[in-house]
Amino acid sequence: MKYIVIIGDGMADWPIDEIDGLTVLQKASIPNMDRLAVKGVLGTVRTIPIGMPPGSDVANLSIMGYDPAKYYTGRAPLEAASMGIPLGENDVAYRCNLVTIEGDESSAVMKDHSSGHITTEEGRELISAVSAELKGEGIDFYPGVSYRHLMVWKDGNEKVECTPPHDILERRIADYLPRGDGSGLLKELMTRSAKILAGHAVNAKRSAAGKRTATSIWLWGQGRRPAIPTFREKYELAGALISAVDLTKGLGVCAGLKIIDVPGATGWIDTNYAGKAEYAVKALQESDFVYIHLEAPDEAGHAGSLEHKIRAVEDLDALIIGPVFEKAKSRYGDVRLLIMPDHATPIKERTHTDEPVPFIIYDSRAEKANHGATYDESIATREGIMVVDKGYSLMDYFIKEARV
């Protein structure tokens, strides 16, 4: 048996007026997900425990089978694991976004959490400039992918109240700056970074091309090094993980999964969908489990782009789900697929929400007959569906039930 998990990050949504009250999943052409819905176990799962922040870190930790209430320490330390950044016992990692802030000091607004999806090459050049001026006295900066970078504060404070920049789009940043003990240092670094970035050649070139510029760093998602059991220890399976973003890769590193880097994987709608499918099927030659993560629907949700979100979901269906299902079944025989979002990222909200999300579990040995079923949020209204309140228990069912 081969186990395949495919995550469309943030692809669940709310009804949208512009498409006659449909959701993105209902509007998009997704024949592969729909045919698997007819033949699979349908259900809803709460990936975000009540009271916890609705982030991809918490949600994917749940999906992988780990109780966030027990194992979650923050987003940034997971990304540090992916990037190979060692954290000492008292070190605190912070996510360091390159963001676009517009307006004067009193009315400055968060316009873009991604600086217009700045390229990795541009982002690294800008973070290098920030690091050259601001590192020291226990502060280090590390370049990542696109707008996503890290800061490590040695013997630092993780109790500062910080806000994800994608949660405050079009809002005044003055209401969401770091608060509490240790916040003074973070605000100072953010303020100083704005002066460094203002005159940088990368920003001048982007501005001349009509692109958004990186006007500041934004620090958030902090935490200390986590300690979780490996996936093999939990499920007696060797596995691999494919993703474009360091957060999900870091979860895989902590879980002992093999991280497979796919050329051209960007975390946006221009990612290498076909390459992810190809590498996933190939990975199953050496292991029995593969976790495929697609970031694009989530980024489109944050951008408030209905067009891009529909496109991302349709490409996921056509270029990943269909080929992976067909080729894995043909090449390896029995397969079990779990298809789901980690959370919703509604176009209307432009940030994550914490309601339960729909899932499909397809088993080639036990096909169902869900007449009229489609894969979308309406699954929640169907009779006889599986309802999973503890999200981390879904992986137990997915793997252990298949072995009965």
Topology overview:
Layout: E1 2-8, H1 24-27, H2 31-39, E2 41-45, H3 56-63, H4 68-71, H5 76-83, E3 92-102, E4 109-112, H6 120-134, E5 139-145, E6 148-153, H7 183-198, H8 201-208, E7 216-223, H9 231-235, E8 239-242, H10 246-254, E9 258-260, H11 273-283, E10 289-294, H12 296-303, H13 306-332, E11 335-340, E12 357-363, E13 386-388, H14 393-400
Parallel strand pairs: 1-10, 1-11, 2-13, 8-9, 8-10
Antiparallel strand pairs: 2-12, 3-4, 3-6, 3-7, 5-6, 11-12
Helix pairs in contact: 5-10, 6-7, 11-13, 12-13
Overview of the molecule:
The protein is 35% helix and 19% strand. With 404 residues, the chain is α/β, with parallel strands linked by helices. The chain folds into 2 domains: 2-71 and 228-403, Alkaline Phosphatase, subunit A, CATH 3.40.720.10; 83-223, no CATH class. The strands form 2 sheets. It has an 8-stranded mixed beta sheet, sandwiched between helices. Strands 3, 4, 5, 6 and 7 form a 5-stranded antiparallel beta sheet that branches. Helix 6 packs across helix 7 and helix 11 packs parallel to helix 13 (306-332). The chain starts with a strand and ends with a helix.
- The topology string of helices and strands comes to EHHEHHHEEHEEHHEHEHEHEHHEEEH
Structural class: alpha/beta
**Hey, roughly how much beta strand do the residues contain?**
15-25%
Indicate the CATH architecture of the largest domain.
3-Layer(aba) Sandwich
